[in-house]
Amino acid sequence: MSIGGMGGHMGGPGGFGRTLRQDSSVKDHRLAPGTTRRIVEYARPYRFQVAVFLVLIVVAALLVVATPLLLQRIIDDGVSHGDRRLVVVLASLVALVAVAEAVLTLVQRWFSARIGEGLIYDLRTDVFAHVQAQSIAFFTRSQTGSLVTRLNSDVIGAQRAFTSTLSGVVSNVISVAVVLGTMMVLSWQITLVALLVVPLLLLPARRVGRRLAGLNRRGMELNAELGNRMTERFNVAGALLVKLFGTPEREQSEFAEKAAGVRDIGIKTAMSSRVFFAVLGAMASLATALVYGVGGWLAIDGAVTIGTLVAFAGLLGRLYGPVTALSNVQVDVMSALVSFERVFEVLDLKPLISVAPGAVDLPDGPLSVELEDVRFVYPGAGEVSLASLEGLPAAGDENGVDGGSGRRATAGDGGLRDGRARRTTAGAEEVLKGISLRVQPGTMLALVGPSGAGKTTLSTLVARLYDPTSGTVRVGGLDVRTVREASLHEAVGVVTQDAHLFHDTVRANLLYGRPDATEAELYTALRAAHIEPLVERLPEGLDTVVGDRGHRLSGGEKQRVAIARLLLRSPRVVVLDEATAHLDSESEAAVQLALDSAMVGRTSIVIAHRLSTVRKARAIVVLDAGRVVERGTHAELLSAGGLYADLYETQFARQDA
């Protein structure tokens, strides 16, 4: 028996090399009730392929004893009796068995890929669709990397349950049973000698398996830290910060330190694996020596034949690999099941925003917007997210304080400014306290007030990024909870302070708002947004890539492209959340012209910080601490001498001058 042959069986269906790297802690994990039943439901569409796959595994496992038995017959019946014809026939059968094993391996691989990739597709599309249905609160709390891991690593781990784990367990169990049975029939004495070596194989397998699991877990952590550092430094915003405040020597030193950790753990892992396989090879050689020693003694006495001795050597290589792999089968199975459970954890998270049965479309024509006694409390972490996706300490949950910074989430944050703010609904402070207002179709309402007054929160309710805790938000006279989501988003357009553009062309970013738009319509929107001359000057025009988050464009240019996208969609209600707040005066003037075009003939709600915008509004609502404290026109509110007059003196007077 060769060491290499034995290693081949270990790295085969049993996936022993992978088994050593599984985290042994999962074997004590308790699965959520119903997990197994749901796994079976996912496998149901592939039941025919799974059945054929299992049959092929059984056939392949039965063939493992064919070659050793044929070699026995070649020696005992062919060579010993000088029967050349029999030797040729049996040797030809050995070749046919080898071809059959190769064909079975290929067919098994096809079915394995068909089942595995099909499951990956089903799980990924289900998780992606479910995550897309989550409210914006979910995304403010969840780490993007954790979500991507669920769609990649955990989905692939779940897929292994039906490919490598399933095939490994079935194949190894059948192989061990068939090989042991065959060995017992050939010689029970030599079989007992061969089994004496099994504990010597299992002991290092378990010990090294635990060590490698710990090293692998630490290696994953170090690689994740290294990856996070590269991600932070290589995106545009991070690279700019490094250029402005960092030093190359410090960055290189810190990166080298983390890379050295990955290097060192890699060396330890490689050496631990090599030591184990060296010990395993030594045990294999010991087993071979024992078999030939005891078997040779018995052959001299005539208790067994030379062919039987050769067959034993071949069978031994097909026994120890599966036995060692089965010693860790519990870890293998639980690792796959835990991956499924982590995927189901995301699928079981109920979206905060749901559409009522029988939802309808908004009516045609101009739309009014109305809030009636609206109260709102930002949902707690347990309502919208999973602790495993947040990756943050739970400190401060009950007080609405961020566990890391001690920063309290304010009404103005809207849960959007600081996604780390952790707050539970029970006993939390209301952000909006009985807001009632109405915007007539085709008119503009300006919202003003100090920071944290609830302006952004109010605007998110109109677009139904959140639902009010109590009260009603109506668009076109219909409660937004009874309106089809697609109809509402088609009718309500939003421009935020920081417009987001995908790392794609200008054309693709515009078409995201309306995929069927023509070239002429694209340029009409660009013209209305006062961005057409810039686009025409770009190297590739509409086909110029704007870069990560649109960083190849200035802030004002990004905003105008976003406004062009909004105009292309042609919403009937426009919500503007301080869309020029962070721009220089020149960019602000250009964006304001674009916004003026966007609001013509549309119902508009504007969170305003410019006096010219406020003066154009048909009505002004002043918010403070989540309440409407004043409403009226610019002149009326100035003469009233209240909060608006104070804001005018502190914010607007310089603009008036």
UniProtKB/TrEMBL annotation:
ABC transmembrane type-1 domain segment(s): 51-335
Residue ranges, annotated region (Disordered): 397-420
Gene Ontology cellular component list: plasma membrane
UniProt keyword Nucleus present: no
GO molecular function: ABC-type oligopeptide transporter activity; ATP binding; ATP hydrolysis activity
Keyword Glycoprotein: no
Chief site of localization: membrane
The ABC transporter domain, residue ranges: 416-650
Record's bilayer topology term: Multi-pass membrane protein
SMART domains: AAA
InterPro entries: AAA+_ATPase, ABC1_TM_dom, ABC1_TM_sf, ABC_transporter-like_ATP-bd, ABC_transporter-like_CS, P-loop_NTPase, Type_1_exporter
Transmembrane spans: 46-66, 86-107, 161-180, 186-203, 275-294
Record key words, sorted: ATP-binding, Cell inner membrane, Cell membrane, Membrane, Nucleotide-binding, Transmembrane, Transmembrane helix, Transport
Location within or outside the cell: Cell inner membrane
Family: Belongs to the ABC transporter superfamily. Siderophore-Fe(3+) uptake transporter (SIUT) (TC 3.A.1.21) family.
Protein name, UniProt field: ABC transporter ATP-binding protein
Organism expressing this protein natively: Georgenia yuyongxinii
